[in-house]
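Below sits our specimen:

——
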Amino acid sequence: MTHELTVLITGAGGGIGRGLALAYAERGANVVLVDRNAEALEQTAALARAEGREPLVRALDLSDPAEIEACFAWLRERGVKLGALVNNAGLGAWKSVYDLSVAEWDYVLNTNLRGTFLCAREAAKLMRETGGGAIVNIASTRALMSEPNSEAYAASKGGILALTHALALSLGPDRIRVNAISPGWIENGDYAALRPVDHAQHPAQRVGRPDDIARACLYLTDPGNDFVTGANLVVDGGMTRKMMYEE
């Protein structure tokens, strides 16, 4: 049950984040939505309102530590009793390792990894005052396997996995559970446009949808699952278990 839960979702302006926001809103949770794209964020908020919820909304650049701290101070001022945080926001810099600049590397790492840490730290400060909570960090199967020209993204997601189990140990005494989800191919665009071969390459025989990640988050933030912490739940249709050979 989520009807008494207040959950903060980063990167809620679209894709998996929007799917998460609507999944929680549909189940009666109070949702706090943040994204750097204010226009996209408002579109998600409108969809949540259609489910009968009135979300708290704030534009936020996760690469800026001061903005993160101000966001959580704003929640404290409003008396928000935060029960869950989903660190979903993330981005990449898809270019040759020979051309990737220090500024580009730093922006990806600061947004994805440092932003996840700072949101978790600030959320934990609120959660420990009200008896605990749950943090879910959205990593990626790219933390476990890669394609070329993904160094910054892969490093950030690998860092998130390590951060997850470290936080699980540190925050456990405050009854705060910390887990990760590593999505595989989750189609956020036109699902009907996918080819049969796209689906068939997955052992599960289909490409993933945002709802697949939402259901995993709902499981990990359910207070009844308080024995699950420090875990990484891979939601990829089995692709990381499939041996790949050239034919």
